[in-house]
Specification:
two-stranded antiparallel ribbon, globular
Length: 252
């Protein structure tokens, strides 16, 4: 299968999370074995031993935004599909659907295309919807495809990923061309929250082959998992609200 010429895939990580790379990539290739993109791993100094993974090493871990700015400057293509190393795919990625997305990007030259459903987008065409010019989490770090030049413009040194979703969204108000799919291309489970494995991910017989007796990082307590579930449910409810009300609640 030929490579897609205008999109790179970048897995955002750092050396501190190298212990979960094996789980991420084994799962990735299980569900997207025919991925047509060049795959890059952003890290500080470590590499993942796989002939299809191209390392992008940024050195000292200054901040999430500094690392990402450094990383995307080492890419060559106009667009970059971004994934986080702690988001584990749980469903096969449709190449038919992805090829449609790639053709749509070639035709419309967007600044940003979200690949998962969160807040229902406004109608744009039969394939994707538009994200309002002013809306909370406009720069969501869910799986998405960015125009590399636009991402570079919106990123600000010294910020965390959470800063980027809040403050970066406000900076993105200056940009049109933000879209979202109506149907998920990529479905996943959050594997690690605030540096800890999710307890539910480690259930006996889990699909990721994880063994609670051999993992090197801590596991969320039952209470922490419950609090995370409540926050996730609150987020789902928030995303069902009209955009104007969402902006009021977030004071945006």
């Amino acid at each position: 299968m030929g490579k897609i010429k205008n999109i790179d895939l970048l897995v955002i990580s750092c050396d501190a999370y190298s212990d979960i790379w094996d789980t991420f990539f084994k799962t990735f290739f299980r569900y997207w074995h025919d991925c047509p993109l060049d795959i890059h791993l952003l890290s500080n100094s470590k590499s993942y031993n796989h002939n299809e993974i191209h390392p992008i090493k940024v050195g000292q871990d200054i901040s999430w935004s500094d690392n990402l700015l450094n990383g995307i400057d080492q890419l060559k293509k106009d667009y970059v599909l971004i994934l986080f190393e702690d988001l584990f795919l749980n469903q096969k990625v449709s190449m038919t659907y992805f090829n449609q997305i790639s053709k749509w990007i070639n035709n419309y030259n967007p600044n940003y295309l979200r690949l998962c459903i969160s807040h229902k987008p406004e109608y744009f065409d039969a394939f994707v919807g538009g994200i309002p010019r002013k809306t909370p989490y406009k720069t969501s770090t869910m799986p998405c495809i960015w125009k590399r030049s636009t991402l570079r413009e919106i990123l600000k040194k010294g910020e965390s990923a959470w800063d980027f979703e809040i403050k970066g969204s406000k900076r993105a108000y200056e940009h049109d061309g933000f879209y979202a799919v109506y149907k998920d291309l990529i479905r996943y489970n959050n594997g690690v929250i605030k540096g800890k494995w999710r307890k539910s991910i480690l259930k006996e017989g889990n699909e990721y082959g994880l063994n609670i007796n051999t993992i090197s990082r801590p596991v969320m307590t039952t209470v922490e998992e419950f609090v995370y579930a409540l926050r996730k449910y609150r987020s789902v409810l928030f995303n069902r609200l009209p955009n104007k009300l969402r902006r009021v609640l977030k004071r945006q």
